[in-house]
């Protein structure tokens, strides 16, 4: 068995309102109706925004959790209303009701906020399946007023729940769908004008479109004091159902607007509808050359301002970079001082060589190499040690790094057991007259700092 929907939707602005603030969507999987509220066309905006948030559900594949899909779509619509109000405070106070059904085979998820309604015709029984979120309905359920009093209560339009951009918890239910079910979803422009008894008779019209037309006709005959929107949907067991969505009311293009020819309701509409105003023919205007020149000047002035800002930013960046110094590893693994900061941008180095490990202006016979440093100092130099100025960088090399050199590469000469005692006079041929003898000079590596004295050779002393 394959259950599908066969549906029709109609909307009308009524006989009193100057615009239609209801929005409606009917598709193969989604039936949704929103009744906007708020002046200055704000209700129209709210209802369109919420319907737009739900419409994508008609294209999505059905999931196991229909209510989660509906809840998320409603939250998105409500958040969109809040964003619009934040952008334009004049829209504060706008909102909309919502009644929607998401169809998935033998199941239907229903979401409801406000006083729009959903009815079900099953097995000859006609019943309302949503609960009005209104002040009058609260009084009615508490037994404080009768149904007759509720119909004429002065606060019957006061809602306890609506989508206004503020936090609200919608009513969510899952229902079983059966072949032969007929659903009626309508705004209060129908339920407030037509009794449930009359609706239960009209809903038995077999064709969904003819049934929807009859519902709107009844609302207009009852006074048409509000926008009226209707969805009729049948659950049928056929291979293919309707597949073209219907978008109407404020969300549509007016193609769903109801027309009744020469009926009494149509004549009443003609009496209340404002006469169409002729549209003045718009003549193309030639742009004033002065305006064009002013526009060009403003564009050029703006471009110059942008270039000045960019140039100032570049100069400030360069000044900041060139005012920095750091000690790092240079060519030949030498410890050197760089002006700038480590790294590069777009392949351009942010630093330049400033000084080597030896102070400038003097003869350097002892360059400080990175491998000669102790491990912690070696790692720091490879990463770059930032300093506030050149003098601090110079002191860091001379006062900190040089004392932390490894002394392993400055080894004393190997001791010999044949070394004569210090008290014995050296043989005449053991040293040249012009060169004093030193125990470690023969084995001292060139270019190394070996200022630490070598330990005394074994056997020395008196």
From TrEMBL:
Domain (PPM-type phosphatase) ranges: 6-235
Residues covered by region (Disordered): 249-290, 408-462
Ranges annotated as spanning the membrane: 299-321
Top-rank lineage group of the source organism: Bacteria
Xref: CDD domains: PP2Cc
InterPro entries to which the protein is assigned, alphabetical: PP2C, PPM-type-like_dom_sf, PPM-type_phosphatase-like_dom
Segment forming the signal sequence: none
Low complexity bias (residue ranges): 412-421, 429-442
UniProt keyword terms in alphabetical order: Hydrolase, Membrane, Transmembrane, Transmembrane helix
GO molecular function, one term: protein serine/threonine phosphatase activity
Enzyme Commission numbers on file: 3.1.3.16
Listed SUPFAM superfamilies: PP2C-like (SSF81606)
Protein name stated in the entry: Protein phosphatase
Source organism per UniProt: Amycolatopsis roodepoortensis
């Amino acid at each position: 068995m394959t259950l599908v929907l066969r549906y029709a939707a109609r909307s009308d602005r009524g006989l009193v309102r100057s615009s239609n603030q209801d929005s409606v969507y009917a598709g193969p999987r989604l039936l949704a109706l929103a009744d906007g509220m708020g002046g200055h066309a704000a209700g129209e905006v709210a209802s369109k925004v919420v319907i737009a948030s739900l419409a994508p559900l008609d294209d999505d594949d059905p999931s196991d959790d229909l209510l989660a899909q509906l809840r998320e779509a409603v939250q998105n619509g409500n958040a969109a209303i809040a964003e619009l109000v934040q952008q334009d405070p004049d829209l504060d106070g706008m909102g909309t009701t919502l009644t929607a059904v998401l169809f998935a085979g033998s199941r239907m998820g229903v979401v409801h906020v406000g006083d729009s309604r959903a009815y079900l015709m099953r097995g000859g029984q006609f019943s309302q399946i949503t609960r009005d979120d209104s002040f009058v309905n609260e009084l009615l359920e508490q037994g404080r007023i009768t149904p007759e009093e509720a119909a004429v209560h002065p606060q019957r339009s006061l809602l306890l729940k609506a989508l206004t951009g503020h936090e609200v918890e919608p009513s969510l239910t899952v229902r079983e769908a059966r072949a032969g079910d007929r659903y009626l979803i309508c705004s209060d422009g129908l339920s407030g004008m037509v009794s449930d008894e009359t609706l239960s008779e009209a809903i038995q019209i077999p064709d969904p479109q003819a049934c929807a037309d009859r519902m709107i006709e009844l609302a207009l005959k009852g006074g048409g004091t509000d926008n009226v929107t209707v969805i009729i949907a049948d659950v049928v067991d056929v291979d293919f159902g309707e597949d073209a969505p219907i978008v109407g009311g404020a969300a549509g293009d007016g193609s769903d607007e109801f027309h009744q020819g020469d009926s009494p309701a149509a004549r009443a509409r003609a009496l209340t509808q404002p006469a169409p105003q002729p549209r003045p023919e718009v003549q193309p205007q030639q742009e004033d050359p002065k305006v064009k020149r002013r526009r060009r000047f403003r564009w050029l002035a703006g471009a110059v301002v942008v270039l000045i800002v960019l140039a100032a930013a570049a100069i400030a960046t360069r000044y900041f970079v060139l005012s920095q110094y750091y000690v790092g590893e240079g060519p030949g693994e030498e410890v050197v001082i760089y002006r700038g900061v480590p790294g590069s941008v777009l392949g351009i180095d942010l630093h330049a060589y400033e000084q080597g490990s030896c102070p400038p202006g003097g003869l350097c016979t002892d360059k400080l190499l990175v491998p000669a440093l102790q491990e912690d100092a070696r790692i720091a130099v490879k990463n770059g040690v930032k300093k506030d100025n050149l003098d601090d960088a110079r002191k860091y090399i001379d006062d900190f790094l040089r004392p932390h050199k490894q002394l392993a590469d400055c080894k004393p000469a190997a001791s010999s057991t044949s070394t004569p005692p210090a008290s014995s006079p050296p043989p005449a041929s053991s040293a040249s007259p012009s060169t004093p003898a030193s125990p470690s000079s023969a084995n001292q590596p060139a270019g190394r700092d070996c200022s630490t004295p070598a330990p005394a050779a074994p056997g020395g002393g008196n």
